[in-house]
């Protein structure tokens, strides 16, 4: 019998969803208590006959929304906000909010009609024939759908990024090569080919004999990958890394700083903060 192996990205999404479920459930519980208490106090101040009614009303609404979260996560998996199809999929999600709101209202009203007579002794009337009430609930449900989708999608992206970082770390350790990403493309560079690296805003410039790569990562992340790959590199400045085997001269500039000359003819600054890391090559 053939055993199907689940794709790592699907497993990552499910890990992210399980973790997000916990935090979202806590958020919904806090929202339930805050909304119920506020409405309860308002009814008490106005002398309403059933000030405890909001506890039932909010409980049915919040529980139905929690129960419908799998529908939203399914839609995110089936119609992700990928770079090539986000416009089309955004339109599909917009249509899904209508179904989400309709099911939410119908289930919420059903539970209220069943429970209100048992708890409070009178019939519950939502006014399903009033279009304005449907529109009122839809406006709130669109916000709920968007918030839930944003929370789960963001956590999926974080989980995917962590998975990619772990894969890059393993690749550096086992194959002694770096995984660099930029502009939707992935480059593989042998760690020993990295002569220098320089921080450039949200990117890092990585100099090799063949060309200079622009990678979307921090200099600290690159430094860790080089360490995993066993490269003979050192951080010589807060924004520079060099391959120590390419250093041919260190020229003091005063106050403990220096200029470091490489055998490629380039020079990079050396900070006194990192002097112990590169002074051994002098």
H-E string: HHHHHEEEEEHEEEEEH
Proportion of strand residues: 15-25%
Individual helix count: 7
- Gyration radius from CA atoms, angstroms: 29 Å
Largest sheet: 5 strands, antiparallel
Distance between the termini: 64 Å
- Poorly predicted runs: none
What is the helix fraction of residues, given as a range? 55-70%
Report on the architecture of this protein:
- The structure is a single chain.
- The strands form 3 sheets. The chain has a 5-stranded antiparallel beta sheet. Strands 8-9-10 form a 3-stranded antiparallel beta sheet, with no helix packed on it.
- It has 282 residues and is α+β, with helices and mostly antiparallel strands.
- The chain contains 7 helices and 10 strands.
- The chain starts with 7 loop residues before the first helix and ends with a helix.
- The chain has helices at 8-46, 53-67, 69-78, 86-120, 131-175, 219-228, 275-278; strands spanning 177-182, 185-190, 196-200, 203-207, 212-215, 233-237, 240-243, 247-254, 257-262, 267-270.
- The radius of gyration is 29 Å and the shape is elongated.
- The mean pLDDT is 89.
- The longest helix has 45 residues, at 131-175.
